Amino acid sequence: xxxxxxxxxxxxxxxxxxxxxxxxxxxxxxxxxxxxxxxxxxxxxxxxxxxxxxxxxxxxxxxxxxxxxxxxxxxxxxxxxxxxxxxxxxxxxxxxxxxxxxxxxxxxxxxxxxxxxxxxxxxxxxxxxxxxxxxxxxxxxxxxxxxxxxxxxxxxxxxxxxxxxxxxxxxxxxxxxxxxxxxxxxxxxxxxxxxxxxxxxxxxxxxxxxxxxxxxxxxxxxxxxxxxxxxxxxxxxxxxxxxxxxxxxxxxxxxxxxxxxxxxxxxxxxxxxxxxxxxxxxxxxxxxxxxxxxxxxxxxxxxxxxxxxxxxxxxxxxxxxxxxxxxxxxxxxxxxxxxxxxxxxxxxxxxxxxxxxx
Length: 358
Fold this sequence. Notes:
The protein has about 350 residues and is of the alpha/beta class. The chain is built from twelve helices and twelve strands. It folds into two domains: about 5-60, DNA polymerase, domain 1; about 65-355, Aldolase class I (TIM Barrel, Alpha-Beta Barrel). The protein has a ten-stranded mixed β-sheet. A hairpin with a 4-residue loop joins strand 1 and strand 2 (about 80-85). The longest helix has 16 residues, at about 135-150. It is elongated. About 45% of the residues are buried.
């Protein structure tokens, strides 16, 4: 794992850490104010700290965790994707998406992913390792700084939402993801002060972790990557379904909704001639009717060389119509970033395969 960082620590542990360095406890709040409140990630810019102590503070509490490899933008600057190299050369991605009323960060929780979903670029790459709490949080702090700089034209200058929908299965890195959520939602200067309701944690359906999340007393949105309403197909598209079937996964989702009062987001990638048949829309509608759920249909962003392709728009529209006819709230996700390898894992894969790999 990477070196210890301020964002790995809760406020009490930060005070203990600065005392270990021979500094007064108030320096912990000072560091937190810089990092979480002012979005300053480089100790060299914290000029109100003693110059003699900055090097030691940087090495012990604010090491550089993310080294930029590439940063691309599209959608007239409203979508920005960053590729990072970690201390062990692992690659991860994060995305900033600006809208007229909000700015959203999509962050990675693992380098790679072990869930092996065949239509996903990250799943094809396999799992390298879990990210630390600070590696997750530092992505958000960086992107919040980009938003604050005014670089996302036509959007507010404050990051307001975070979705754990980048590389990795968040609930497979459970303790660090939950710690990151608490850093992001703790009031400044202890954290970024985001609303729990503006945090979304996705999962392919790790049932024990979903049930554990329901016990955390958090009001984050749970997003379930379902992708098929029947076990035969979901066994292929989401291999973890071979362990926890559709009925059990949905039961855990409804338990989360009942415990938190939060509507579950059902993520469904529309894949041509695979999961987009009218009868599957009808089956999905029957499974979700009357439940505290919203379907988010995702036009597939195909990966290079993949046999999977996006559903045609008329097929997509008919799928939406049938779900809504069943009384299920349904929207189609806004497509962003296709010209910058916008789908999760694509930019990392292209970098590893191409001349910029090292």
